Amino acid sequence: MTTTEAFDGLVCTDCDETFGVDTHGQCPACGGVVTPRYDLDEETVVQGLVDPDAVPLPFTREVRVTASEGATPLVAAGRLADEMGVASLSIKDEGRNPTGTVYDRGMSLAVTAADRDGTEPLALAAAGNAGQSAAAYAGRIDARSYAFVPSRTAFSNKALVNVHGGEMRVVGGRFDDAAAAVDEQLATDYHSLSAFETAYRHDGTKSLVYEVVVEDALARGDLSARTASAVAEALPLSPPDALVVPVGTGELVVAVARGLDELTSTGVLADPPTVHPVQPAGCAPIVSAHSASAETTEPWETPDTIVGELEIPDPAGGDLALDALAAVGGEGVTVSDDDALESAVTVAQTEVLEVGGAGGVALAGAWDLAESGELDGDDRVVVVNTDAGVKTPDVLRSHLMGKGI
User: Fold this and answer.
1) Of all helices (H) and strands (E), which one includes residue 137?
2) Which of 30, 76, 121, 265 to pair with 396, CA 20 to 30 A apart?
3) What are residue 333's DSSP bridge partners?
4) Cα(72)–Cα(231) distance, rounded to whole angstroms?
């Protein structure tokens, strides 16, 4: 398979063993998480800013399994900015991706690698959205796929796994039960698309950061045009002051930190923004560990949140997320389900956008950060909405019914 010039192979995040692109799954030496590494310079990174297809990734655009994921809008939310008392607030709306989720960015790469590997079926455990995304991209290469999801997964995800041609296995219990069922129920070799069992999902998602940086610079007038010459004249770029992200498996935090590191290490970005992780109060292993300055996460004993996408009690990327937050992380926040759903509804009613429950978690976290003074009137804030509101409209509507509406 054709790889990009910048791609410099795979490396284990635990033992530092290096591998070629033919290695799939976790580290064969120690079982650690494997991730791509790159040899980057300013010119390569600048090209990634001006052309979404040129973000440094392992595979060339000609061979990627793609459905034009990415290039999602950064939507100004002026009314919310005024109410929060911050200089500006924008929402990076990942609900505009092909299957309505941020996971499409990484699944494109993961399925590209699976296509080269040739092992079928493709399989993963998912809270919902990742299973739908995997089925869609697997269909693009005519590969059999299995999504193992907990019984509480949204009906829209369950239905569309099948609509995209994937096989769905509903597992009683919660996410960890679904994860355990993959090996228990699949009596064959398979290519895993689960978070951090493939080297590519978290790497592909970093493209979100490239887009946020250039779109923010254009919106503020720091950048006159999205061209290499205009970017070169404006270097180093100034990022937003804060990124507020919902956290589940740790995938998004790791991806954001990877993108920021590439931009800052090459001198394209002056300094990274502060990344604020937000989780539901009923399942917050990463935020709790980050707030305690711990080096490892502990499994959440009694997970309980209506935001099923973020109910990941023992996240596979927990420790990597903590490492990432040690470099770029600010205050972590936990929010109630009611506040998350109220935030999602408020955005729909005041800013047009239909955000999902996870996006509501991030928005509620931004509110709390503003109320505590962590964010103030000088801060430019970007909140990441990771999925479309139409994924779980019944949950949002039930919140209104609970208020008598």
Assistant:
1) helix 129-140
2) 76
3) 278
4) 20
The span from the CA of 398 to the CA of 341, in Å, is: 10
pTM: 0.97
What is d(CA 35, CA 14) in angstroms, rounded to the nearest whole number?
10
Q: Give the other-Cβ count within 10 Å of 36's Cβ.
A: 25
The distance from CA 90 to its chain's CA centroid, rounded to whole angstroms, is 17
- The helix/strand/coil state of 274 is strand
Structure tokens at 300: 């959440």
Q: Are 48 and 123 in contact (CB under 8 A)?
A: no
Spatial strand order in the sheet of 18-19: 18-19, 7-12, 34-38
The arithmetic mean of pLDDT across residues 315-327, rounded, is 97
CB under 8 Å, gap of 24 or more: what pairs does 71-78 form? 71/211, 72/96, 72/97, 72/208, 72/211, 73/215, 74/211, 74/212, 74/215, 74/216, 74/219, 74/382, 75/351, 75/353, 76/219, 77/347, 77/350, 77/351, 77/353
Task: Note if the bond before 121 is cis, omega within 30 degrees.
Answer: yes
Determine the average pLDDT of the residues in 110-129.
Answer: 96
What single letter denotes the amino acid at residue 229?
A: S
Euclidean distance between CA atoms 313 and 286, whole angstroms: 9
Residue with tokens 């269909």: 139
Amino acid at 243: L
Residue 74: other Cβ atoms inside 10 A: 18
What confidence score (pLDDT) does residue 334 get?
Answer: 98
Taking the C-alpha atoms of residue 212 and residue 93, their distance in angstroms, rounded to an integer, is 11
C-alpha 200: how far from its chain's center? Answer: 12
CA distance 139 to 272: 37
Encoded tokens for 345? 């509804």
**CA–CA dist 386, 129 (Å, integer):** 10
Stated as kind and residue range, the H or E segment containing 348 is: helix 337-351
Q: What CATH fold (topology level) applies to the domain 74-101+202-402? A: Rossmann fold (3.40.50)
- Of 161, 148, 65, the C-alpha closest to 111 is 65
Q: Residue for token digits 């690698």?
A: 113
**Structure confidence by residue, pLDDT tens digits, 147-158:** 999 999 999 999
**Both tokens of residue 367?**
């509110």
